[in-house]
Amino acid sequence: MRKEVYCKACGYIMREEKLGEVCPACGVPKTAFEPYKEKLSEKRRFILDLHLHPITVHFPQAFASILPVLIIGGILLTCRFGDMLISTATVLIYLLPLTVLPSIAAGLIDGKTRFKSLTTIALKRKIITGSLLLVLSILMAVYTFTQHITVSTYPFILAMSIACILCEVILGQIGNKLMDSKLPG
Predict the structure, then answer these.
(1) What pTM, to 2 d.p., does this model score?
(2) More reliable by pLDDT, 176 or 141
(3) Which one of 51, 95, 138, 141 is separated from 165 by 20 to 30 angstroms, measured CA to CA?
């Protein structure tokens, strides 16, 4: 069985045989390391080590973040390139709900695995905000499909895309605080 150690200064965990003279994360001397004993079952550790939720979160974040840039670019550029930006934004709008769904599913799995319950205050906030993001992304896709992106629909679609970004920021802030938390067992 491999021995692990953790840095008392920053909490970095690593295999003991890989430890050099300093912590690879924060740079304190190796004397700051202590033996580490995993407090999670192998099954829970395996699920968390897949990093499903952090990975799936990046797709909707990237899509939501680039939408306002594409829409504003499409508004400002009245040439063929502007049309291409609007076409790209349209495709991303249609795909956004399909990226939010797996992110929510992975978040539920991650929350249940880390905390054995989804009823904590922080997880409830994440579920509500994630649900709002899903609803906004679906509404934006339906609106874009029925109305198309035109000069008259730019403000509404832009506002919805910014609202999606705000949801992503809130989710990131809550998730950042929960990242290293987990119940033992």
Answers:
(1) 0.80
(2) 141
(3) 51
Q: From CA 139, how far away is CA 134, in angstroms rounded? A: 9
CB 122 within 8 A of CB 178: yes
Residues 133, 116 contacting (CB under 8 angstroms)? no
pLDDT at 148: 83
Q: Looking at the predicted structure, is the pLDDT value of residue 142 above 90?
A: yes
d(CA 114, CA 179): 9
Which tokens hold the place of 12?
């970095």
Q: How many CB atoms sit inside 10 A of residue 95's CB?
A: 15
Confidence label for 79 from pLDDT (cuts 50, 70 and 90) = confident
Helix (H), strand (E), coil (C) string for 110-129: HHHHHHCCCCCHHHHHHHHH
Q: Is 146 exposed, middle or buried (0-12, 13-18, 19+ CB in 10 A)?
A: exposed
CA distance 120 to 14: 30
